[in-house]
Amino acid sequence: MRAPRLLGSAAGVVGGVVLTLAVAAPAQAAGYRYWSYWENDGGGTTWSYATQGPAIARPSDGDAVGFRFAVSEDTSDASRPSAAPDFSAICGGTEAKASTKRVAVVVDFGTPQDAPEGETPPTPAIRTGCAQVRTDATGAEALAAVAKPLRYDSAALLCGIAGYPAKGCGEQVAATEPNPLSTEHLPTGDPNMTASKTVDGDGDGGPSVGIVVGGAAVLVLGGAALWKARRRA
Q1: How far apart are CA 66 and CA 197, in angstroms?
Q2: Above 80 in pLDDT, residue 1?
Q3: In whole angstroms, how far apart are CA 64 and each of 1, 60, 89, 143, 207?
Q4: What pTM, to 2 d.p., does this model score?
Q5: CA separation for the pair 209, 219 (Å, rounded)
Q6: Mean pLDDT computed over 216-225
């Protein structure tokens, strides 16, 4: 009769731990409201998430840079600029000059759903311009040439373009806030935002990978305990 008791005890421990893990799993994730930075080297019609921030990246003549304001959980779901990186359409009428370069700039102010409380995106929501700047100019300098005023925080994080938004800078946004998260890339070390983040969830209300793996490990250990109990019996 010892085996049934051991079996019941082990099963109870396993079930209790798994239940605890399920209860501990966070119900919601968080995102950040910020300006993301995108680039295109003139070789296609698709935006690529920049690997360097606009204050460091130095686009070449014929390149396009894009800025999009939105709420995103991380770099995998950041919203791209809605307008295509079309250098010919944006800079086609700007004549090349010695010691300068032309950079197509696209600014997407985003949707009302992503706007901070009490603010709405400027109209039109998308602004484009051809920045003719010196050959060693950065993406930030190209932006400043077509979309002033710019607003930065003390950590050099780009907070506002053309006065939008009027306040705030990369603030965290809970999933329960009225503004929903984007569904279309801001992890630690993100070039467009200096703040790091930790999200204990996968964005859909389910448990994190660590919790799932931990639960699986508990089940394996529990199974081993049951096997040993049977052998002793």
Answers
A1: 24
A2: no
A3: 76, 9, 11, 11, 39
A4: 0.65
A5: 15
A6: 38
pLDDT, position 177: 54
CA distance 62 to 104: 7
**Mean pLDDT across the stretch 27-52?**
85
- pLDDT per residue over 120-149, tens digit each? 999 999 999 999 999 999 999 999 999 999
| Neighbouring C-beta atoms of residue 28, cutoff 10 Å | 13
**Pick from 93, 82, 91: which is nearest to 45 by CA?**
82
Residue 202, burial from CB neighbour count under 10 angstroms (0-12, 13-18, 19+): middle
Identity (one letter) of the amino acid at 147?
A
